[in-house]
Amino acid sequence: MKSIAAIPLGLYIHLPWCIRKCPYCDFNSHEAAGELPYDRYVDALLRDLDAELSHIQNRKVDTIFIGGGTPSLFPAAAVRRLLDGIRARMDCVTGMEVTLEANPGAADTSRFSGFLAAGVNRLSIGVQSFRNHQLKRLGRVHDSAAAHAALAAARDAGYGDINIDIMHGLPDDRDDEALVDLVEALAFEPTHISWYQLTIEPGTAFAHRPPQLPDHDSVAKQFDAGSEMLAAAGYDRYEVSAYARPGRCARHNINYWQFGDYIGIGAGAHGKMTSTLGIFRSEKRRNPATYMSQAGQPECTTRSGPVDDADLITEFAINALRLREGFDESLFTSRTGLTRGALSDPVRQAQEHGWLNDAAGVIRPTELGYRFLNDLQLLFLK
Ligand SMILES: C[S@@+](CC[C@H](N)C(=O)[O-])C[C@H]1O[C@@H](n2cnc3c(N)ncnc32)[C@H](O)[C@@H]1O
Ligand code: SF4
Q1: 84 CA to middle of ligand 2, Å?
Q2: How large is the C-alpha radius of gyration of the chain?
Q3: What is the pLDDT of residue 108?
Q4: Does ligand 2 lie within 6 Å of residue 204's CB atom?
Q5: Containing H/E element for 351?
Q6: What order of strands is seen across the sheet that includes strand 261-266?
Q7: CB distance 365 to 355 below 8 Å
Q8: Hey, what's the torsion of the CAs at 58, 64, 70, 73, to 10 degrees?
Q9: Residue segments in the chain with a per-residue pLDDT below the cut of 50
Q10: Which-ligand-closest: CA of 129?
Q11: What is the pLDDT of residues 248-304, one digit of tens each?
């Protein structure tokens, strides 16, 4: 690997509790029973981080993402102790992006101000829909009024960067109904919108009792109309589900898609780290109680690697092709340690389908290739 120090480094922190489990969600999230063990969990996270430090060779952290679960369930004082603990242990770049995920049903103005004062500078708010019947159906703990209140609280607290999560393809939605949610989100003028299509994930309540989802054509119409609306409002679709005002892309997520490195701490958190021996992956114990008792000990982490060449090609392509701009071939060689020749066959096949452009060393999905992204990515499977 040429220069490991030049690979951006993110820090993902998983807080695994929610007020209630949403029927579509397969994240490692658990219903909170009684008072959460904030202090014990922050202690465990910092022990976990201490155990990771030997793997990062004094590299600086570029971005932090506190995800969940519902991180906004944690009091601001706990988030401050966590961020202070990180800053005491690691060098952070100037202007580091620090995102925290919030649920409108678990958030209030004073908490948002406290998170900001603790060092969070980007708030990601899980609204999903502004329509009460859909929120109910999605098992959300908040209604539309609470979503509006959370957005106003985020703005009043002074956040410069706010993301809103919205879903489309919701049960029984007809072609244009879903657009109401985007109209309301846009009225708030966030810097970023994550516009996800609802998927039915194995093991979820929706997988056991599937709701009636709109058919493929109807979802495609929703998507085309919504994309036009977002573009007209000045939001660039820079990734499959991510739309940003100029200069406001999520740096932490871009690092995943550009095959950068990240430390993962917290229950079930995943990490990826480049070393002189290759690329290694890590996964922490998923159960919060087990995690808290084992954090910092070797048995808390499953490590695997180095990733073999065929998997490197697949993993790089699956991530980087999600970006609308594609990737420079020098990114491929520097992040994987492989030569450009390793991509020749799948790139040629994709060009034959009209799915990829390869000009001046930049490999970029065509309009058609982006529409058939799953098929395009399949060409890079070993
Ligand atoms: C960890 S949650 C965000 C914070 C908080 N837990 C919440 O839900 O408000 C991450 C986001 O992933 C999206 N998501 C989760 N499961 C999904 C699914 N099955 N289909 C589409 N989007 C999903 C939702 O938009 C959700 O806001
Ligand atoms: S609140 Fe968020 S993390 Fe929790 S269950 Fe719902 S979607 Fe999943």
Answers
A1: 26
A2: 21
A3: 72
A4: no
A5: helix 344-352
A6: 236-239, 242-244, 192-197, 161-168, 122-128, 92-102, 61-68, 9-15, 261-266, 270-275, 278-284, 301-304
A7: yes
A8: 80
A9: none
A10: 1
A11: 999 999 999 999 999 999 999 999 999 999 999 999 999 999 999 999 999 999 999
- Three-state DSSP string of 269-316: CEEEEEECCEEEEEEECCCHHHHHHHCCCHHHEEEECCCCHHHHHHHH
Amino acid identity for residue 205 in this structure: A
How far does the chain reach from its first CA to its final CA, in angstroms? 22
196 CB under 6 A from ligand 1?
yes
Question: Is the CB of 25 within 6 Å of ligand 1?
Answer: yes
User: How far apart, in whole angstroms, are the C-alpha atoms of residue 15 and residue 209?
Assistant: 28
Q: Which atom of ligand 1 is nearest to 194's Cα?
A: 25
Residue 144 to residue 199: CA distance in whole angstroms: 22
Q: What is the pLDDT of residue 1?
A: 52
Helix 216-232 / helix 179-187 crossing angle, nearest 10 deg: 20
- The pTM for the full model equals 0.97
Atom 10, ligand 1: residue with shortest CA distance: 126
For residue 281, which amino acid is it? Answer: R
If you measure from the C-alpha of residue 126 to the centroid of ligand 1, how many angstroms do you get, rounded to a whole number? Answer: 7
Which of 165, 193, 198 to mutate to test ligand 1, by most ligand atoms within 8 A of the CB atom? 165
Mutate to test the pocket of ligand 1, among 101, 142, 201, 223 (most ligand atoms within 8 A of CB): 101
CA dihedral 139, 143, 148, 153 (to 10 degrees): -80
Q: Is 128 in the pocket of ligand 1 (CB under 6 A)?
A: yes
Q: Tell me which amino acid residue 193 is.
A: I
DSSP H or E run through 371:
helix 367-371
The reply to whether ligand 1 has any atom less than 6 angstroms from the CB of 167 is: yes
